[in-house]
Design brief:
The protein folds into two domains: 98 residues, Phosphorylase Kinase, domain 1; 213 residues, Transferase(Phosphotransferase) domain 1 (Transferase(Phosphotransferase), domain 1), CATH 1.10.510.10. The strands form four sheets. It has a seven-stranded antiparallel sheet with strand order 2-1-6-7-5-4-3. Helix 5 runs antiparallel to helix 7. The chain is elongated, with a radius of gyration of 34 Å. By secondary structure, it is α+β, with helices and mostly antiparallel strands.
Length: 382
Amino acid sequence: MGNLALCGIPQLQVLPCKKSTHRKSRTKKVFLTILLPTSFAVSFVIMVLMCLLIWKKRTRPPTNVDIYQGETWRRISYLELVRATDGFNENNLLGKGSYGSVYKGRLDEGMQVAVKVFHLDFGGALTSFEVECEVMKGLRHRNLIKIISSCSNNDFKSLILEYMPNGSLEKLLFSENNVLDISHRLDIMIDVAQALEYLHFGYLVPIIHCDIKPSNVLLDEHMVAHLSDFGIAKLLGEESSMTQTKTLATIGYMAPEYGREGKISRKGDVYSYGIMLMETFTKKKPTNEMFTEEMSLKRWVGESLDSTVMQVVDTNLLIRDDEHFSAKEECVSSILSLAMECTRETPLDRIIMKEVVTRLTKIRAKLAKNETRRGRRVLNLG
């Protein structure tokens, strides 16, 4: 009673309330001070994002013909690959395998490359291309071959690799002008061991190469070795130490469990590496005609260690008249003993690549020390 400002609905017997303009003015003020600037800011951000997307789309190179040089991407066409290899001429053929052929080429700006062309009519070649791309895209190591680019369409699949002017270890080992002495061969095998150590222990998940052999070890202009050809490589799961495959590697280099049951593991790569280590210092392939069911490269080397490595070592490496003969003989003996540890029948009994790198590095240091000491002694006598 007596409250003249009281208002409400008629049922309450009070005066009806007048419509207030205060809330409208307040809402208008909020819109002008907060919502309007915010909407302008959102619109501006959307416009910037749209511009960035358009710019990225225009500057992004095609996925099938990307080439990476330094800090910039450069486009390369299939026709340029044809020009670079002179129409994939046989004269430029560097090597040929089941899944592909590798050609030497020179791009328009003068850069030398190796172009690996996959034989798509051969079963497994497409899978090999996809596996190699998947495995190699994240790898970074000085002793692994680098993929510069890939060129891919429905009818053509190729990888553009860095060119290795000194060819493969296999060609150098068995060439008439073999210039690889003990130090060269030891350096090369340490390079390969370091590459495998990285694949087995230095990457996010262990990578099994599955095809370790001299033809897959390439040498650059400084005779640094690079492991290549990851066409049948496998990635192990985080909790897995062994997996199975139906893909067979090269006969003579496969671990026993790989050949019998298709089981692959890091220790399988170790076995193949051990066979290659023997081949490098004996200059005898595991498929040499002298090796039959009764005699193998592994058994031949093992029996020689009980007497003298002179029976099996490459004749170009050890000469009795050499002033460093004793040091070199001890070096080769240690290397072949290590190779035997790599090729033990049971995977669990084989050593790991970390230990291989450590042992070979110590052997190299000891050889260099002995040769230096011998050189000083001769100098003093003079």
